[in-house]
Amino acid sequence: MSISVQIVQGILLAFALVVILTRPYLQLLRRLGFGKRIREDGPGSHLVKEGTPTMGGLLIIIVVISLALFLNILGPDTFAPIVTLGLVGALGAADDYLNARTGEGIRIRQKLLWQIVVAVVAAFQIQRTYAIDQIAVPFIGAVPIDPFLYVLFAAFAIIGASNGVNLTDGLDGLAGGTLIFAFVAFMIIALLNPIAVRGTVVNQESLAVFCALIIGALLGFLWFNVHPAQIFMGDSGSLSLGATLAVTALITGQILVLPIIGIIFVAETASDIIQIVSFRLTGRRVFRMAPIHHHFELGGWDEEKITLRFWIVGVLAAMLGVVFFLATIQNRVA
User: Fold this and answer.
1) CB neighbours of 32 closer than 8 A, spacing ≥ 6?
2) Percentage of the chain surpassing pLDDT 90?
């Protein structure tokens, strides 16, 4: 079976399964009382979303991992993404459960500790599997890097992407849509980027199919998550998919392209950091509210308009990231 057929098959299977399973899953969540608790210090318009079923990310994880096993795409290039998706997803699911039951999730320090453990293990596994001692720099090519420093940098990237997507998941369809564009970009990169492992050239077709499964599952999820959302992704989805995106970027060797492809996640994180630092140092806020999508929301933009405009930026960023990758490849060939 050709790789193009496998990718289309993966997208359609994942999409169909999520769409078919979401309605009974919604009924189960309502029966269990897994409704989202809305923060009182957030935008007032969000209070109507109180009680909307959350933990939709758990269904995405189950479908993606199940199809990965069914399609037999397990291998060196998919082991770390699948394990990361599952382990960080478990953390997010626990956080969603506590939020639904008590209104409070897992403590930030405890959550960060789990993320650090998973990130370091994933980074170490990737470095050992691919014997990485260099990193691809856009327009320049491969630059040497000490393996220990690479593990630290890779772990930081995984944690940063995980929390960046989590911060983005604040409007209906926002995180899901921008994640789709990011995974499409890395699916293309995986297809065009065979890598050398200890002197042997290895293609990354299995990783491309894995990205396709996530894309299809996210498309199915968006069917119910676009405004007005019938279900939220929750931390089970945003934390795990963000971490998995970074792991995918690391395996393709294009981690420095991730901030471009994921510019929305970077902007959301940066706005939150700027807001906190500014308030603590000067007592003033730079934005009406952080992350930045709330700034636009309080500025009078409709939720749908913010989401669609952020999607447009996400599409352009994904295309730009692929162009940066191609420029790097051309420089390497030359």
Assistant:
1) none
2) 71
Q: Tokens for 22, please give them.
A: 């979401």
SS3 string of 174-198?
HHHHHHHHHHHHHHHHHHHCCEEEC
Q: With 0.90 as the threshold, say if the pTM is over it.
A: yes
For residue 299, give the DSSP letter. T
Question: 206-235 b/e with 16+ CB inside 10 Å = b?
Answer: bbbbbbbbbbbbbbbbbebbbeebebbbbb
Query: C-alpha distances in angstroms, 99 versus 45, 216, 258, 304, 331?
Result: 20, 28, 30, 26, 49
User: What is d(CA 248, CA 211) in angstroms, rounded to the nearest whole number?
Assistant: 8
SS3 state of residue 246: helix
- Where the chain has pLDDT below 70, the residues are 1, 37-49, 195-202, 330-334
- How would you label 113-134 residue by residue, b for 16+ Cβ within 10 Å and e otherwise? ebbeebbbbbbbbbbeebebee
Residue pLDDT, tens place only, 99-141: 888 777 788 889 999 999 999 999 999 999 888 888 988 888 8
As a whole number of angstroms, the distance between CA 16 and CA 108 comes to 35
Phi, psi values for residue 134, rounded to 5° = -150, 160
Question: 141-144 and 134-137: which strand pairing?
Answer: antiparallel
Q: Are 46 and 36 in contact (CB under 8 A)?
A: no
Residue 301: closest CA among 227, 220, 235, 205 = 227
Prior bond of 24 cis (ω within 30°): no
